[in-house]
Write a structure and sequence with these properties.
By secondary structure, the chain is mainly β. The protein has two helices and 36 strands. The protein has a four-stranded antiparallel sheet, with no helix packed on it. It has a four-stranded antiparallel sheet with strand order 5-6-7-8, with no helix packed on it. The chain has a four-stranded antiparallel sheet with strand order 9-10-11-12, with no helix packed on it. β9 and β10 form a beta hairpin. The chain is globular and about 75 Å long.
């Protein structure tokens, strides 16, 4: 996830390792899908960056078997590509653009291009203290706004190099603070001149002055992060920090091994002023399940809006209220999708809510135990069919928060119905979006006498229009399409075996 200016709004490139990228525009109206890049890249996208009206996407190189590439898109269409050096077989893990340079970070080397004509300019090959070149680069690259043609490179031995991309020469190497410092995991310039934030393995962060090669501040991260910090961002609108909240120096940190975002006030000696718990789903710990964690956190330039991108295939914006005493932001907009591969996919019939003769909606189920409805006309109408207050239950059980439940045998998916393997539908008795809410809970006739529905209110609510079968489950479950939520009934098979739904008759009274 990278941000950049586009059409007087902020464009956000959200690849999530897919071959096409989704380009969103963030403004007061929400996160709106602008383009889906075409053509598809030959391999999975490994890095991207939004630059002016263009988006750069790096692909391929994983496993050392395929030559990587970097394509350039404008308004969703490919308009160019970068020249790739011969014999390069490493994936690009990061792309940055500054001045007249495009810089790409691989595992052991840095490639530099001219942004004017996309020609390859030079290759930089850093080394580490033990002489090894295997996976030398671990913590990304960044440029300092006031340092011409210079890039900072985080390395596996904990040191940080300063390179001149114009001459291809090493300027200086900043050594780690002690012998026990781990590899650099993230590096980001602060809003103050010559100061940079450096995160290392174990969650440690220091603010370092690169002009004097001196550590200005060390942050105590033990109480806030139990995973490595892989993303750092600074608020650049000049507010949010200090006693009155009208000073610069607010920092946000996150890691791909956790679900929290920590907010820091550097005016208070590097104090953590708040933790945004459960910003995204936590990483799965059961049987290689659905991925989670935060891949990127970034403040929009000159705004009080923070953007987070998660490995759960979610993109969210958060806003800091100017007159609120809360140190953490509130959710502003979010877009998401299946967090695991789709297993069942079908167009809904033309008489479904909001459809016409040409059809409009796609229904899909995935290995993430979710059921989604997708609008092929207005992407903002797409959404997941609710299974109740899942995240509220997860917070009570400690599955969302600072490290709670991450090592547990339980996961967020356990609170949902089992994986959907088949479904059927009939829309002729669906109540639509304006139907009265159904009394009782969802699937209330399963294992609970309290709150079970008797069906007497179906005249007001309409009938459920979707039936799903689930892996290893003996119940067929119903769903309201119009209200985008789970229904009242779960029907048990007579032999206790797995359900296979083949057909939902147009009479909307029975299924097979």
């Amino acid at each position: 996830m990278e941000t950049g200016k586009l059409e007087r709004a902020h464009a956000i490139a959200h690849p999530h390792a897919n071959k096409p990228q989704h380009i969103f525009r963030s403004d007061i109206r929400g996160l709106n899908l602008l383009f889906i890049t075409r053509p598809q890249t030959p391999a999975l996208i490994t890095a991207s960056v939004a630059w002016k009206e263009r988006v750069l996407a790096a692909w391929g190189g994983e496993g050392g078997l395929q030559e990587p590439g970097v394509w350039i898109f404008q308004r969703g269409r490919k308009c160019g590509e970068l020249e790739i050096p011969n014999h390069l077989r490493e994936p690009f893990k990061q792309l940055i653009v500054f001045g007249s340079w495009i810089v790409g970070r691989c595992l052991t080397r840095i490639e530099v291009w001219k942004s004017a004509n996309y020609e390859h300019y030079t290759t930089i090959t850093p080394s580490i203290s033990n002489g090894s070149t295997e996976a030398t680069l671990s913590g990304g690259v960044c440029n300092m706004p006031t340092f011409l043609n210079k890039v900072l490179v985080g390395k596996r031995d904990g040191s940080v190099d300063i390179w001149n991309v114009n001459t291809g020469k090493l300027i200086y190497t900043m050594s780690p603070p002690d012998l026990f410092s781990g590899a650099v995991t993230s590096i980001q310039p602060t809003t103050a001149i010559s100061l940079v934030a450096i995160a290392r393995i174990g969650g440690s962060i220091c603010i370092h002055d690169i002009q004097t090669d001196r550590t200005i501040m060390k942050l105590n991260t033990q109480s806030c992060h139990n995973t490595n910090i892989t993303s750092i961002s600074f608020r650049t609108d000049g507010h949010g920090a200090g006693e009155d909240g009208h000073s610069s120096g607010l920092m946000a940190t996150a890691g791909n091994g956790g679900s929290d975002v920590t907010i820091w006030d550097l005016h208070k000696g590097g104090q953590a002023v708040g933790v945004l718990h459960g910003a995204h789903n936590p990483p799965s710990s059961v049987h290689g399940g659905v991925a989670g964690g935060i891949s990127k956190v970034e403040f929009l330039p000159g705004q009080d809006v923070m953007v987070t991108s998660g490995l759960d295939n979610a993109l969210k914006t958060w806003i800091f209220d100017a007159h609120s005493l809360a140190p953490v932001p509130r959710i502003l907009h979010s877009r998401s999708g299946h967090a695991a591969p789709v297993t069942v996919l079908s167009f809904l019939p033309t008489n479904s809510e909001g459809a016409d003769a040409t059809g409009k909606w796609i229904l899909s189920a995935g290995k993430d135990h979710s059921l989604w409805g997708w609008s092929i006309r207005k992407d903002g109408q797409s959404g997941e069919l609710s299974q109740g207050a899942i995240r509220k239950k997860a917070k009570k059980l400690g599955l969302l928060g600072a490290g709670l439940g991450i090592d547990s045998s339980a996961s967020l998916d356990d609170l949902k119905a089992p994986e959907i393997i088949c479904f059927a539908y009939s829309m002729n008795r669906d109540g639509g979006m304006g139907a009265a809410p159904a009394a009782g809970g969802i699937w209330a006739n399963v294992g609970s006498k309290k709150g079970a529905s008797d069906g007497s209110g179906s005249g007001l609510t309409g009938w459920e229009s979707i039936v799903t079968g689930h892996r290893g489950d003996k119940y067929a479950r119903t769903w309201f399409w119009g209200r985008k939520r789970a229904g009242r009934w779960a029907f048990e098979t007579t032999d206790g075996t797995e359900v296979t739904v083949r057909l939902l008759r147009n009479f909307a009274s029975w299924s097979v």
